[in-house]
From TrEMBL:
One of its GO terms (molecular function) is glycosyltransferase activity. This is Glycosyltransferase. Residues 229-394 form the Glycosyl transferase family domain. Keywords: Transferase. It holds the Pfam family Glyco_transf_4. PANTHER family: SLL1723 PROTEIN, SULFOQUINOVOSYL TRANSFERASE SQD2. The keyword Ribosomal protein does not apply. Residues 125-215 form the Glycosyltransferase subfamily 4-like N-terminal domain.
């Protein structure tokens, strides 16, 4: 660790979380670059499998206590300690919270984040945190902003997808104005932000793609060149993602029905969990696909790696929902490409930045199961195409999406934040 490397506090909504491997990879890479981290998790860990690489993170994790009496005592103690140490800064943060609660007409939500921020600020003072970084522009960024004011330290945040597109533009403008810098994970997001930000804030926005740990995907392990029929089992069509509307899993199931009706032999595994599980199970049953389309639920990364290696093709069909929610670049697409699995996805949001249609994968229009089925049929039947796509996709990941390289850009920003 160099003298200029700050101790960075990461403010996360929940840690660890199975669906956020991109944050886990980022923290592992930063620690490998000798950046000391301290994690503030606003919620307790979810009751789900954990990635084995969680054990590699050395950072201390601070949670609120488990029981309400202890939570109240801990929050009160934190606020009191911060108020005594820096009364003017504490009053400034209190005034900001009051103003936000009036402006947004959400006093309970803002009040909750204010209470959390005092606890986080106390932790910053105790652990000599020099910079706060939040993942997601909603509650974590609000807590980091208020805690940063209380402690007089810079803060930044990464905005991804839902937190960006479902946050009112005026609120996003205010958050970016107060931040030292802001990261986002797609060029598409950068252009969206520049569309409503004042020009003087454009330089605060930095594009840093989510990184993949290529060590988990050694070259030579690809099964993409094994033609259908030579496998011991049927060709595997794999998809991974939360079972939520924007992932387009219903369109994928419909495409599977079309493939089946054409007499194409395959099996489909959709890995993930979410609120649409029952609806998808019903849809699968109604289409007579229960023998070939399975939903095994969420799983840790080490188990998922085996599925990537077995897959003949990886498919994901995201779309923009009615309320504007959308993906950025789904991490699982980059993982499948790193594993040497041909990918088929939709031309939505930042996905074309990863998948160059016809070179590193194939893109189809969103909400179009017929074209999706046509494209999957083509890939399943064409082994040379699969080999070509797999080779080019691995090179794309090595070039722009390797986590140890993307973390260097972030570390530089952290260092600059405490030097200014």
């Amino acid at each position: 660790m160099t003298a200029t490397t700050p101790t960075v506090g990461y403010v996360l909504k929940r840690y660890p979380r199975l669906s956020e491997t991109f944050i886990l990879n980022e923290m592992r890479a930063l620690e490998r670059l000798d950046t000391p981290l301290h994690i503030f998790s606003l919620l307790r860990p979810e009751d789900a499998p954990r990635h084995s690489t969680v054990s590699e993170v050395r950072a201390t994790v601070t949670y609120l206590p488990l029981t309400w009496p202890r939570i109240i005592l801990a929050v009160a103690k934190g606020h009191a300690a911060v108020a005594v140490r820096a009364p003017l800064r504490y009053l400034h943060a209190t005034g900001l919270a009051l103003w936000w609660s009036i402006r947004t007409r959400r006093p309970l939500s803002v009040g909750k984040q204010f209470l959390r921020s005092g606890y986080v600020a106390h932790g910053c003072l105790q652990n000599n945190i020099q910079h706060l970084h939040a993942h997601f522009a909603n509650a974590p960024a609000t807590v980091a902003r208020l805690a940063g004011v209380m402690c007089n330290i810079p803060y930044s945040f990464t905005t991804h997808a839902k937190d960006l597109y479902l946050t009112p533009k005026e609120a996003m403008r205010r958050r970016i104005e107060s931040a030292h810098f802001v990261l986002t994970c797609t060029r598409y997001n950068v252009e969206y932000l520049r569309g409503f930000l004042p020009r003087q804030d454009w330089d605060k926005i930095h594009l840093v793609y989510h990184g993949i740990d290529l060590a988990a995907f050694p070259q030579g392990d690809s099964f993409a060149d094994v033609p259908p029929g030579e496998n011991a089992d049927l060709p595997l069509l794999l998809s991974v993602g939360r079972l939520v509307p924007k992932k387009g899993m219903r369109d994928l199931v419909t495409a599977c029905h079309l493939l089946h009706s054409r007499g194409i032999a395959f099996r489909c595994v959709i890995i993930g969990e979410g609120p649409l599980r029952q609806e998808l199970e019903t849809h699968i049953a109604e289409l007579g696909l229960t023998a070939m389309v399975t939903l095994p639920g969420a799983m840790a990364h080490d188990r998922l790696l085996a599925f990537y290696g077995q897959a003949t093709v990886f498919a994901l069909a995201p779309h923009v929902t009615e309320d504007g929610d959308r993906d950025g670049i789904p991490n699982v697409l980059a993982e499948a490409m790193a594993a040497g699995t041909p990918v088929v996805s939709t031309a939505v949001s930042g996905i074309p930045e990863l998948i160059e249609d016809g070179r590193t994968g194939l893109l189809v229009p969103p909400r179009d199961p017929v074209v999706l089925a046509d494209t999957l049929e083509r890939v399943l039947a064409d082994a040379p195409l699969r080999r070509r796509l797999a080779a080019a996709s691995r090179g794309k990941i090595e070039e722009r999406f390797e986590c140890w390289e993307t973390a260097k850009a972030l570390r530089t920003l952290f260092v600059q934040s405490v030097q200014q």
